[in-house]
Amino acid sequence: MYILAMAVFFLFFAVSNAPAPVTTPREDPLVGFYYGLEVEGIISAFFSEVSGIGSENEVAESKVVNEKGVQIILKIPGRLKWTDVTLKRGITANKHLWNWRKMVENGNIKEARKNFTIIMYDQTLTPVAQWDFKNGWPSKIEAPAAGSTEGAFESITIVHEYMVRSK
């Protein structure tokens, strides 16, 4: 009798704690995607790899005494920092990015500051995400590494003053 009662208890417990069925539509992560760089409304290049889209805050620590008289350290958001964006692609004959970087090298910072957008496309080249940036300029550009057997990839790093995910 005891074993039967325990079995009924465990069966009831298992059924009552079963997770609710999922009712939201399933959205699988993208498998293949590409990125387009649009500078002041004109698509400048397509990339296979992008990193650094985001922001972060410095963490400021503040020593305080709580209501019980115990010293504690509160962690609060400090200064906001926009992370640098790095884009990589197979090298092409298009020198638009190199010319943009040359503006900075020549000291034409005011002219080099441009609003830009990064658009993420799925396998069918449908835009699925978009990030808009303000006052960006290329801080670094690199040609492909010599002797690479994995393909000739160039990269550009762009700094900026603001970004938002608009799509």
Question: Would you write up a description of this structure?
Answer:
This protein is α+β, with helices and mostly antiparallel strands. The chain has a single domain, classed as Pnp Oxidase, Chain A (Roll), CATH 2.30.110. The chain has three helices and ten strands. The protein has helices spanning 2-16, 96-105, 109-112; strands spanning 34-39, 42-47, 49-51, 55-65, 71-82, 85-90, 114-121, 127-142, 153-159, 162-165. Strands 1, 2, 3, 6, 7, 8, 9 and 10 form an eight-stranded antiparallel β-sheet that branches. The longest helix has 15 residues, at 2-16. The chain is extended and about 70 Å long. The termini are far apart. The mean pLDDT is 87.
Gross morphology is: extended
CATH classification class: Mainly Beta
The fourth-level CATH homologous superfamily is: Hcp1-like
- Number of helical regions: 3
Helical content (DSSP H or I, runs of 4+):
10-25%
On the 0 to 100 scale, the average pLDDT is 87
Low-confidence stretches: none
**Domains, number:** 1
Structural class: alpha+beta
Indicate the CATH topology. Answer: Pnp Oxidase, Chain A
Instruction: State the total count of DSSP E strands.
Output: 10
First and last CA, distance: 62 Å
Based on the coordinates given, report the CATH architecture: Roll
Largest sheet: 8 strands, antiparallel
Whole-angstrom Rg: 26 Å
Could you spell the SSE succession in H and E letters? HEEEEEEHHEEEE
